[in-house]
UniProtKB/TrEMBL annotation:
The lineage of its organism: Eukaryota, Metazoa, Chordata, Craniata, Vertebrata. This is Uncharacterized protein. The gene is CFAP210. It comes from Chrysemys picta bellii (Western painted turtle). Residues 1-11 have a biased composition (Polar residues). The keyword Flavoprotein does not apply. Pfam families: TPH (PF13868). Residues 1-53 are annotated as: Disordered. InterPro entries: CFAP210 (IPR039986), TPH_dom (IPR043597). Keywords: Coiled coil. Residues 163-193, 245-332, 363-432 form a coiled coil. One of its GO terms (cellular component) is axonemal microtubule.
Length: 622
């Protein structure tokens, strides 16, 4: 609370200064600020002064007014001491430094409370805060005790938490050990998989090498060599075959006779089983026939009952149809009356529509140039509205279908109510029609007047539109000139780009040609390496087969230098290929190779190395 001091001089006595009670800025205290004012008297520490709420402001004013006057003496008010009061006066009354009462406070209007009453009021005001503080202190004490208890029993081994902690530690150690074992297994698995991958790569390389044409040819020759070897062995075996197979044929004949006898016994047993099965089937057929006759009689009885129920259902349906027909005739009569009324309203609406059409045509003539854009926009809106309308129509159709089904059930009880409502509605429509005719006449006069005003506005809008069109034409011509200038600049830029692309293309072609030459050189080196590898492999196979086989000519032919499989010479400059020469006929058979020593000798005899001698012999002397 703001302190108030007296405006009197320093020499005035301060024995009877009054001090307000200490303020506690608690929510409960703030909510009670409109309570009676309470002050402390300096002469008695156990008493309090208070005033009523209604007199708080007048009394405060009186206290402030009286602050300028000398303070009243304690006890009998008979006079005033002239000497100044020392500081011991305050100590005598045991009153701390306080404030003066405001001017205008009448001490006779101040109520003095006993200490017990003041304590009771203070307790009632601060009870909620003290209770909250006590609860908070108890909670804090319990929480601290709980934390101390947890800290004490945290490391005890014979508690549930300690056992759980030991289990968690043991589990953690076990998981770490398992993780180490898994890591070792993963490492072994990775090494095993790497070995398997390496083995698979080696097998793939071997398989790919075996798929080579020359290797395939060598393997075919090896197979042919094995076949020739097997054929020689078969010829040797054929010579000793009669003596070996004679005993086997006799044994097989005895086994065949035993099998025939055993098969005859099984056939007789199967015959007897079929006879017994046929007898069982005949008995079952008889039972089925008897059951079929019983079922037929039961079905006949059920059919007669169904026919009787069907006739009853048809009679009920006929009565329902007659009832519905009567209801439909009544609805048709009511609908015809409704349509007659709608025709009258339709004529009025057509007249309104005709007037609106005249107004729209006049407006359309004035804004003919803007109509195209509006129609496009309206078409788009109509399309969206039509889609929405279709969705709504389908939804309404489904709802109407359900509604009609419900109406058929309720129509019987609603006919009487609708007749009364129809008569009332007919009267209302007659009154409404009269009012509408009157409003139509007034509207016609208003429309004629507005039509003249709109024609004037249309003329002004047409002039404004013409000016806008001329401005648009001017802007369009400027845009066309700008467009031509941009096109010319783009063409120049495109020409430069094409020249640059041609140079890049020429450089790219040269680079590709050089790369192709390098590729051919690398391919030739690879071919030579493959040929050397093949010759080594072929020599190993030939050496191995020559130890066990006499006829190794197919292997020697397949291992001949030069790949291609032809009979021609080997072209060293083309990677060592041996081309094939085909006959010029429909078959295209490969020509045989007659290159031998005799052929070379005959060629040397029939070939003249000096062409000058041939010229002289033929008579070419010039």
């Amino acid at each position: 609370m703001r302190q108030l001091r007296s405006s009197s001089s320093d020499t005035e006595p301060a024995r009877f200064r009054l001090r307000p009670a200490k303020s506690r800025d608690t929510p409960l205290r703030q909510s009670r600020r409109l309570s009676p004012s309470v002050f402390r008297l300096p002469g008695n520490r156990g008493t309090r002064c208070t005033s009523e709420p209604g007199a708080a402001l007048p009394r405060l004013q009186r206290v402030m007014d009286s602050a300028a006057r000398p303070a009243a003496l304690y006890g009998r008010r008979k006079g005033q001491r002239l000497e100044p009061t020392s500081a011991n006066g305050l100590e005598e009354y045991n009153a701390p430094d306080s404030i003066f009462l405001p001017n205008g406070v009448d001490l006779r209007q101040v109520t003095v409370l006993p200490k017990a009453e003041w304590v009771r009021i203070r307790d009632s005001v601060d009870s909620a805060a003290r209770e909250a503080a006590r609860i908070h202190a108890e909670r804090k004490e319990r929480k601290d005790m709980h934390l101390r208890s947890k800290a004490v029993v945290k490391n005890w081994p014979n508690t549930i938490a300690g056992q759980a902690q030991r289990k968690l530690k043991a589990r953690k150690l076990r998981e770490e050990k398992e993780e180490e074992e898994r890591k070792l297994l993963d490492l072994e698995e990775a090494q095993f998989q790497a070995a398997k991958r390496k083995e698979a790569i080696e097998q793939a390389k071997t398989y790919q090498y075996y798929q080579n044409e020359r290797v395939k040819g060598l393997h075919k020759a090896l197979l042919l060599t094995e076949v020739l070897k097997e054929r020689d062995a078969q010829i040797e075996f054929k010579k000793t075959k009669p003596d070996i197979y004679k005993k086997k044929e006799e044994e097989m004949e005895r086994e065949r006779e035993k099998a025939i006898l055993k098969e005859q016994e099984k056939a007789y047993e199967r015959y007897m089983n079929r006879q017994a099965l046929c007898r069982d089937h005949l008995e079952q057929i008889k039972e089925h026939k008897h059951q079929a006759e019983l079922d037929k009689l039961e079905a006949k009885k059920e059919g007669e009952e169904i026919q009787r129920l069907t006739k009853l259902y048809e009679l009920e349906v006929q009565r329902e149809n007659e009832k519905k027909l009567e209801e439909k005739l009544e609805h048709r009569r009511m609908h015809c009356a409704h349509v007659a009324d709608q025709d009258i309203l339709k004529a009025v609406q057509e007249q309104k529509q005709e007037e609106e059409n005249d107004k729209i045509r006049a407006h359309f003539k004035a804004k003919q140039n803007m109509a195209k854009l509006r129609r496009e926009k309206e078409a788009e809106m109509n399309r969206l509205m039509q889609e929405r309308r279709d969705i709504i129509t389908n939804h309404l159709a489904a709802q109407m279908k359900q509604t009609f089904e419900r109406i058929d059930e309720r129509v019987a009880r609603d006919v009487a109510e609708r007749e009364a409502e129809w008569e009332k509605e007919l009267k209302e429509r007659e009154e409404k029609t009269k009012a509408e005719l009157k409003s139509i006449a007034e509207h016609r006069a208003t429309v004629i007047k507005m039509k003249g005003e709109r024609e004037k506005e249309a003329i002004l809008e047409g002039k404004e539109k013409l000016r806008e069109l001329m401005e648009a034409d001017r802007i369009y011509l400027e845009m066309e000139k700008d467009k031509k200038r941009r096109n010319r600049n783009e063409n120049i830029k495109m020409q430069k780009t094409q020249i640059q692309q041609m140079a890049e293309k020429r450089a790219k072609e040269q680079h590709e040609k050089q790369a192709e030459l390098d590729y051919e050189a690398q391919k030739e080196v690879i071919t030579i390496c493959k040929e050397q590898e093949f010759q080594e492999y072929a020599n190993q196979v030939i050496d191995s087969e020559s130890k066990t086989t006499r006829n190794i000519y197919p292997l020697l032919k397949a291992a001949k230098e030069g790949h291609g499989g032809g009979h021609g010479p080997v072209y060293r400059e083309r990677g060592g290929i041996r081309p094939s020469y085909q006959a010029r006929d429909i078959n295209g058979t490969q020509l045989p190779s007659y290159n031998c020593n005799t052929t070379e000798e005959i060629k040397e005899l029939n070939t003249n190395g000096n062409i000058q001698q041939a010229k002289g012999r033929l008579g070419f002397t010039w």
